[in-house]
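User: Um, what's this?
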Amino acid sequence: MGKEEVNGRNKQRRYNEKETIKKFLVSSKGISFLVDHVNRESSNEDVRPNKKSIEKEVSNLIDYYFAWINGLPIRKNMTMSKYEFLKYLEDFCRKNDVSNLFEFLFI
């Protein structure tokens, strides 16, 4: 996988970060995994959250996303903080018209 036949020799395909991220986001470990997790968690919660529970949920969500990001098969996540990478992922999704898949996060 990832190799093409060129003039009788195998040549490895060039690393394409955009393509790698898109493949990951549409895979079973991508956005659908996050949506399923949030749907499971939201079914167990109260209807009217208070400030403390919202802050705790945001902190837990950031930690959960950071753990999820470590499974993303790209090189940039090795050198960024979790907040920088969340911003990078948000910008990527906005540019590629997939940010609407994260609307479930807004309160």
